[in-house]
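Hey L., structure's done. Input below.
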Amino acid sequence: MATLCLGIQATALAEPGVYQQLACRDNDPFVFCTQGCKNQDKNWTPVDPISATWRPVQGYCPWPSTIDCWVGPYYVGKAWTQTAFVAWGQYMSICPAAKQQGDWKGSGRPESTPYEH
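Output:
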């Protein structure tokens, strides 16, 4: 079921000219693509947005899942939040579209400018 949902989601996000509201970070693509979500939705972390590589946060499922993860009888991680799941799909389809990553040039931290997000 998750594979089916991801396939449908990726198709919807990949449509050219269709604006998508980002699932987290107050719709700031720079912060979203370089830092992912935060707080309870920080279930995965971007590694390289241009190649869409990422890693799971320790304690969470090592793959996108909204149910706890098991391999046979072994528990391997907590379920991702729905927001983290949707954000992962957006990260995979939206962030690589930039082709190259820019550097932050503003004052202060990017997630704190113009306010904490």
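The radius of gyration is 15 Å. The first helix runs from residue 2 to 14.

-- N.
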